[in-house]
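Input chain follows. Return structure tokens only.
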Amino acid sequence: MTESNEGATTFQRSRLDAVHKWAATSAGVAALALSLYNFAELQKKPEIDVALPHLLRIGFEGKDTHFYIQPTVSTRIKAQNVEVIRDALLHLTPIGSISPSKKPVFYWKEVGTWDFDPSTERLSYKWSGDPAPFLISQDKPQQPIFLFQADHWSFQPGRYGGSLQLSRTGNHDLLTKNFCLIISDKAANEIRSGASQQSIYFFRNDLPKFTSSNKYSGCYVRETD
């Protein structure tokens, strides 16, 4: 082999070695950057999302009104940290002809489950836990059935503006979901008449016969109205 060929071969080997080192270094830097990014993402606080159901339930027991609602509480971001929901609040404000003095004061009484009896085709509520903080993480979305109670209060026919608020640990704003509820004369009488049997009545915000109406659009309405 001539000196020129040996020189060319040595030069090519040097270039290949340099390319390999550059490729390895680039791959290492990229892997480090990805690891740092993933680490930073995992350290983020989870972003909590609250979605209201299409159905809520109302009952009247004795002189007290019960309000049952089952939201979906979840986070879309994968994170090592978990979020703690500390408290749940329900507000209902009469709108229009109903006197503001008739505004109820609800408190979170407990959480429960629904039990369906196929023989009677009746749905009953059962206690499952006290009002207590619960955890939210990406792999553990929650759908608690909240029972809120307003003592010595009953619905008057009319329209109500409502909000479900969840408070978190730390210095965070309340997670708030607003909704509206329409109680007809018929629905108000149903709720009162069912008090002795502890009956529960459902209201929906997606009934086809109401969704096209501006009066009912987006509001929870009794199906039998």
